[in-house]
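Discussion board: Methods & Data

I've been asked by a reviewer to show the raw model output for two of the constructs in my manuscript, not just the figures. I'm not sure how much to include, so I'm pasting the format here to get opinions. Each protein appears as its amino acid sequence followed by a line of discrete structure tokens. Is this the kind of thing reviewers expect to see in a supplement, or should I convert it first? Here is construct A:
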Amino acid sequence: MKNFFNFAICLSVLCFGFGCKENPLSKFMQPKYNCTMVNEPEPKTSEEFFARAQKHIEMNSGGGATSLDDCAFAALDEAIQLDPKNADALRVRGFGYRQRKQYDLALADYGKVIEITPNESGIYFLRSIVFIEQKNYDKALADLSEVLRLNPDDNAAYEKRAEVYRKLGKNDLAEADDKEYRKLSGITETVKPTPIGTSNYSGSVKTISGGVLNGKAINLVKPEYPTAAKAVRAGGAVNVQVIVDENGNVISASAVSGHALLKSSAVKAAKESKFSPTMLSGQKVRVSGIIVYNFTAE
């Protein structure tokens, strides 16, 4: 019997190294998950335990990964025990550990995800948040720089890296990142009136406040649900501050609230949207307002 278990342990190590889908020792391991769901079959595979964890999150945590309950954690533990390379389960469990302020455990899970999917920019962003919360700004800076290497148009990463540069006293670099963030977000410093002599001149163009603009859209582009956000079941509302010109085009867009992994997608959708021109006293005017995007965790 002793020789059998020694062999089984060696087989488990070899399996992990060569990427087996399920751990061959799983049937000898004592299960930790003892939660039940009405009319749901008991999970057996890694993917089934991950799906069960997602259902616990949806039922008990308001559909987000901000407060995983014990059953969700237990299901994720089982998923990872059965398949140590289940990146989705590791990513979500790491997010839950971060919310519980168990930073070392979060970093361990994120590190494993990076080993499995080294070219996924979102996981470096998630890990950078943990480093920032630990005040480990040098490592946060390295992760945010990696995000931008993989995805040079990630405005949220520029915004967060500017914050880190300021923490490190590197204000010139922070300002450079702020400039890139504003550029990618379509934020303009001033709104200039249409010059006299141009074909569409209508006097000095006035900007009015329009409140929530969703209902005034001719074409409200639906934002994509980013893979990294989907994995941690990030959801909720993202508010995007926009300026719509006199012809109904979005000339400025900046996310002012919402989950960090959703902001970039929301801003991109806002900039591609089209609105009905707004008239005031017979003249076309610019409108400043908010577009609200509601993301539902799938």
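Construct B, same format:
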Amino acid sequence: MVIKNLESKNILVTGGAGFMGSSFIHHLLSSKDFYGTIVNYDALTYCGNLENLREVQEDRRYIFVKGNILDQKFVELILESHKIDLIVHFAAETHVDRSIESSRVFLETNILGTHSLLEALRKFSHMHFHHISTDEVYGSCDENGCFYEESAYLPNSPYSASKAASDHLVRSYIKTHGISATISHAGNNFGPRQYPEKLIPFMITQMMENKPLTLYGNGLNRRDWVFVEDHSRAIEAILRHGRKGEIYNIASEENLSNLELVLKLIEIYASFENQDPLALKEKILFIKDRPGHDFCYAMDAKKLCQETKWQPKYSLDLGLKKTIEWYLSQKTLLVKA
């Protein structure tokens, strides 16, 4: 067991105004049994949005602090002043395309930012650190392949390389400095409130605005899809039932090609909006592939399931329906933006 009595802990969530971080905060605060404090520490860069947490901003258990994880002294001040017991580290630059165009900020945030947190943590030996990482650190596998926690790291983009480096830093601090930490690798998260540069919200907003549905290459690149609420549940499960120093893969086994995913989105969206799915399919446009585009990400999550009893709650179809419903409910605001 990593954390005893999680419901009473003071938790610092880095990047809590982002998509996955805000989902985790919502998840914990949705339980009346949670009576600790969540401090959302976020620099509010382009994909951080406090509107993601509008429903909980008056909750006494929730505090927002604007700050950059690179500012180690300020991090230490927050850790001490709020009597933090646990850090859940979501803050990261995550978009592969952006890392190809300009990688420096990825190195600064993902590597140096994580290093700043780890250095701060050395001064608070009682704290636990959970590091959110990605399946992309393993590189690409073939259609029938699968990655395990022991698989070699072979990152193929500046983004995945920066996350791989941050994973190695966390492991080194566990071994060298004896910090208490865990690491998780997640498949592609999706759900409400996701920034529209990612594939699923991009396709939904393109359909809402009657624009082309652009796909890289031939659309056959494969991904594992995890509904964001299931990801939040998995993080909680690791914190409650995992083992210190361990790595856990979070995967749903809902693995399909980008083209298959878009066709699913079209069918569900068309049923909600009473549109002709064939007309939407005609808007699919294949464009030049991006450099170093990994063919397939797939992970085995048996370790997580066996040790923590976590299982996905949402099927891909149900998660997509909930996601499309949310974006349609925000249609006026999204189109104006």
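Answer (T.O., handling editor elsewhere):
This is acceptable in a supplement if you add a one-line summary per construct. For B, something like: The two ends are 44 Å apart (CA to CA).
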